Amino acid sequence: MSSIFSQGPVHGYRLALAVLLSIALMAGDIRYSQFNYLRQYLGFAITPVILIVSIPSRISEWSDSTLVPREQLLRENESLKIQLLVLHRKTQELAVIQAENKRLRELVNASERVGKDILAAQLIGLDSDAFTHQVIINKGKDDGVFIGQPVLDAKGLMGQIVKVDKLTSRVLLVADANHAVPVQVNRNGVRAIAVGNGSLDAMELMFVPDTADIILGDLLVTSGLGNKFPEGYPVATVEAIEHDPGEHFAKVIVKPLAELNRSRHVLLVTNSKDFLGAVNE
User: Are 123 and 114 in contact (CB under 8 A)?
Assistant: First the structure.
């Protein structure tokens, strides 16, 4: 007690009073049930104080659980960017596969329309000469490829074989300036010769009379003349017709049906060799 009062008379009296009050409350709580109600009221009264006092600790817990360090956010952001690039690449691959499947289905449909023995091949190279339009395919002499063999894609005539090696062959495209193919208008049978002019998007009909029955949109197919191609292969459609009063022949521009600058898979008509041999005889 002397130590308590040594800190000051007032402080000592307050502490002694608090001790006596605590003892009285504990005794009363044991003997009288009314103290239960008092304790409940006191607990209800100090609840806001407890909540206010606990706010700093709750804020600290919330910040620890929700606020992420900047370095971690940067790492997660970089990881998400990488995942996005991977997904984008997979999407591109899927688009390429879908386009390739579409072209292959068209090629299968074309082989059914031809109704002849065919050999499928794939483009593996382009001619380096800028003044020619030739491609290289992955079929050669070992596969039965021969010079003059017609080459088709899913849309129409692409050209013909001009050189055969053991495993590869060279195809002269219809758009090449050195290529010519006898054609006829599918609508009425009017004949002409379609020659390449060096452009992959256009060819020209030679020696078409100014009065010939040819109109825009006409489909041109191989005529079977000239000992080159069997009859009936789609070649081109008429794109433009120019009439010059001072000329006897009309200028007719046609567009190749074959996708000369896009097709990678082609068909070689194998039984056309019998046709060419029979014609030559």
Answer: no
